[in-house]
Write a structure and sequence with these properties.
Blueprint lengths: L17 H11 L4 E5 L3 E7 L15 E5 L2 E7 L1 H22 L5 H14 L11 E8 L5 E6 L5 E3 L2 E4 L3 H11 L6 H12 L10 E7 L5 E2 L2 H28 L1
Antiparallel strand pairs: 1-2, 1-8, 2-9, 3-4, 4-5, 5-6, 6-7, 9-10
């Protein structure tokens, strides 16, 4: 394997591009990020690694606005994410200037995926070590949630997760997701899924809410704490009901 993982543009005999796969491993070691698409909103729930005691936490951001109607969250290398964010913001503004209309979500998702794919076949460069969640609304007010990965693949989801323990969170979402969720129900589902792999505590969690016609909103620590308490209360009630059913049986 060693002689095939030194050059990005060389396939191994069994069809692997090891540098691209190493980039995927960097994503798996990144903080967990979850997206849930509701009837009129898209929720991004993010794990934040604990900052140093003297570090300004405001300088560590896991989500950013691409335009007034599109937000991007990521898992993986923060420096790579900054580059993608800047390129995507410029493209959103270019689209507005050319078309005199807001950029569709699927367009910017394909644009970001195209940038990532380009770096899987360029000599003297390495793939971007991030996966992205792209949430937003089209001009017809339809909510969308897209995922891109280091290989340059772009796919649309109703609910998904990237980063560490992504498979565990996706399995939870598959078992509990329902169509046309309200904003509050979408927030609760995203929070419940994130708490499957993250310790409770508002300092380690961040919730981004995208609603039609409104700018991206980050919940305050007090709102996140209230949401955690509500979710944990519901879990306790469910456990108590299960115990009562077992005892009655």
């Amino acid at each position: 394997m060693s002689k095939y993982d030194r050059a990005l543009t060389v396939f191994s005999p069994d069809g692997h591009l090891f540098q691209a796969e190493y980039a995927m491993e960097a994503v798996k070691k990144g903080a967990a990020s979850i997206g849930v698409r509701g009837a009129n909103s898209v929720i991004l729930a993010l794990e934040k690694f604990e900052t140093k005691k003297l570090q300004d936490s405001r300088t560590v951001k896991k989500v950013g606005a691409l335009d007034s109607h599109i937000a991007l969250a990521y898992s993986g290398l923060s420096a790579d994410a900054r580059v993608i964010l800047n390129k995507a913001r410029i493209e959103c503004q270019n689209f507005r200037l050319r078309m005199d209309a807001p950029c569709p979500v699927d367009y910017i998702a394909r644009y970001i995926a195209g940038i990532q794919q380009k770096y899987t076949q360029s000599g003297g460069a390495r793939p971007f070590g991030i996966s992205t969640l792209i949430a937003g609304f089209d001009p017809d007010k339809t909510p969308h949630l897209f995922v891109t990965d280091p290989t340059g693949t772009s796919t649309e989801w109703q609910a998904t997760a990237i980063g560490r323990s992504g498979d565990v969170v996706r399995e939870y979402l598959e078992n509990h997701f329902q169509q046309d969720l309200s904003t509050n129900d979408s927030i609760d589902l995203a929070m419940k899924a994130l708490l499957e792999v993250v310790d409770t505590g508002s300092k380690n969690l961040e919730i981004c809410v995208m609603e039609c016609g409104k700018p991206m909103r980050i919940l305050t620590d007090a709102e996140v704490t209230a949401c955690i308490e509500r979710v944990e209360g519901e879990k306790k009630k469910e456990e108590e009901e299960k115990k009562k059913k077992l005892l009655s049986a």
